Amino acid sequence: MISSATELFLKLKELGYDNRSRDPWWWPQSGSFKVVVGAILTQNSSWQNVEKSLYNLEEHSFIELEALASTPLALLEERIRPSGFFRAKSKNLQQLSRNILDDFGAFNAFQESVTREWLLAQRGIGQESADAILNYACYQEAFVVDSYTHRLLQAFGYDFSSYEELQEWIVDDFSTNYKVVFPELTRAQAYARAHGMVVEYCKVNKKGRAVTIEQLLQT
User: DSSP states of 40-60 as a string?
Assistant: First the structure.
């Protein structure tokens, strides 16, 4: 049985799920506007399809903040079509890009000053997307919880009624004990890598929508 978030992350690290071959913050090209775009595109989509859309955007130089704000909507829809829900996502991406420019002036100012409240006020951004942007794009202390996190802890018998409750269960413990797992990292980066380990584990150990925990129980 897992009694705390710190215990869970220690076991995941011991099993080798802290993937050092990836970006130091786990999400590809962390600290860039591309993370913001990816966080929107990945909603209700597989990362494989998101990568196709990101490639299309990069190939046509649409991945920059100013470009997304001014690109004709029809062209943007076509480039992100592989991610699904391309009409809604293109509108949300373009409006978000314009709002970032209007309210912050540039992406680096956005990284330094954006708040969770500002992000949640944007069309198409929910709690998971907001936390992903804060942590992986802006290097802020925000712990992302997702369906993988929920399923993994559900397999251990935990039942959380909301995103906030699950996030609180993790952060209340891990925010003070993160150095036990990642002694060399800041709290924000430890949050990023811990969430990354959950995703890496669940991708390997899922059966349908369920996540198996045999590996974790054997350690």
Answer: HHTTTS-HHHHHHHHHHHHHT
